[in-house]
Amino acid sequence: MAADRNFLIIGHRARTAPDWKLDDLCGGGGRLDVLVRCVTAALWVSHGLRRDTDAWLLLLGPPAPPVAVHFAGKTVRYLNPDERSTAALVRNGLVKLRNRDSVEASPGVTLHRIGLVELLARLPPAVLLDEAGDATGFPAAPLTIVLSDDRDPTEAERAELESAPRVRLGDRSLLSSACITLAHSRLDSA
Ligand SMILES: C[S@@+](CC[C@H](N)C(=O)[O-])C[C@H]1O[C@@H](n2cnc3c(N)ncnc32)[C@H](O)[C@@H]1O
């Protein structure tokens, strides 16, 4: 079961095999650095975790996309605020996934071989974070806030999200992880 507040981050180049090094998240990992920063922004507060929030990373890079990595705020363990150890949880998950359809790789970290369409069908209603969006507020929870990595969503992804409200957080294009912090702030004070 999904949390009330979900963040789904589309990783267009993120590798779907555990063949990268923890000191090469940007290159070999296919910009996994962006995605693991998003996990930190989605789940961490000072000295603790948001137990009402889940983070979903959609890995779309070679060699076997798609893979969705689910961090469940309610049950996750061994999650630390640094990029490297979160990336290690993802890599460990890819090792354990191997030829399976899904696996709980560590407590609260589950991997599934599903793509955007199936994820959107399973999760609460989606909102797309978009620099060109026409909305500035969020609908009430439960909701799924979708954002992209360092690349814009593709036309096909935009088509899948056609019915989702598009929320703009300001005039400048921001880091994905910063968008998550801003979204939390707005939802926390709503
Ligand atoms: C780094 S931006 C995407 C790349 C950027 N558009 C570019 O090509 O330079 C990452 C994601 O954060 C979200 N985002 C960034 N700035 C935003 C803003 N001002 N309002 C809403 N969403 C934003 C969008 O989902 C975007 O796809």
What does this structure look like?
The chain is of the alpha/beta class and 190 residues long. The protein has a single domain, classed as SPOUT methyltransferase, trefoil knot domain (Alpha/beta knot), CATH 3.40.1280. The chain contains 5 helices and 10 strands. It has an 8-stranded mixed sheet, sandwiched between helices. A two-stranded antiparallel ribbon has the order 2-3. Helix 1 crosses helix 2 and helix 1 runs parallel beside helix 5. The longest helix is centred in the middle third of the chain and has 15 residues. It is globular and about 40 Å long. The two termini are 24 Å apart. The mean pLDDT is 97.
What is the secondary structure topology, with strand pairs?
Layout: E1 5-11, H1 32-43, E2 44-45, E3 48-49, E4 53-59, E5 67-72, H2 83-97, E6 102-106, E7 109-112, H3 116-122, E8 126-129, E9 143-148, H4 155-160, E10 166-167, H5 176-188
Parallel strand pairs: 1-4, 1-9, 8-9, 8-10
Antiparallel strand pairs: 2-3, 4-5, 5-7, 6-7
Helix pairs in contact: 1-2, 1-5
Bound molecules: S-adenosylmethionine.
Order of helical and strand elements: EHEEEEHEEHEEHEH
Decide which structural class fits the backbone: alpha/beta
CATH architecture: 3-Layer(aba) Sandwich
Distinct small molecules bound, one entry per kind: S-adenosylmethionine
Q: Assess the beta-strand content as a share of residues.
A: 15-25%
The residue-averaged pLDDT reads: 97
Taking the sheet with the most strands, its summary is: 8 strands, mixed
Question: What gyration radius follows from the Cα positions, in whole Å?
Answer: 15 Å
Q: Assign the CATH topology.
A: Alpha/beta knot
CATH superfamily: SPOUT methyltransferase, trefoil knot domain
Into how many domains do the coordinates divide? Answer: 1
